[in-house]
Amino acid sequence: MTFNSLGLSAPLLKAIAAQGYDTPSPIQEKAIPAVLAGHDVMAAAQTGTGKTAGFTLPILELLSKGKRAPANEVRTLILTPTRELAAQVGESVATYGKHMSLSSAVVFGGVKINPQMMKLRRGVDILVATPGRLMDLHSQNAVKFTNLEILVLDEADRMLDMGFIHDITKIIALLPRRRQNLMFSATFSDEIRKLAKGLVKNPIEISVSPRNAAAPTVTQWVCPVDKKQKAPLLTKLIKDGDWSQALVFTKTKHGANKLTKHLESQGIVASAIHGNKSQGARTKALAGFKAGEIRILVATDIAARGLDIEQLPHVVNFDLPNVPEDYVHRIGRTGRAGATGEAISFVSAEEVDLLSDIERLTQKILPRKEIEGFEPEQTVKETTLNRPVRATKPRKPLNSQTNMTDNTRHNNNSSNTKRRAVYGQGPKPGNKLKRGGQNQTHSAGGNKDQASSGNRKSETGTGEGSTRPSSKGASPYAGARKTSSTSTGRNRPSGGNSNRGSGRSRSN
Question: Where is the composition biased (Low complexity) (predicted)?
Answer without folding.
Answer: 489-508
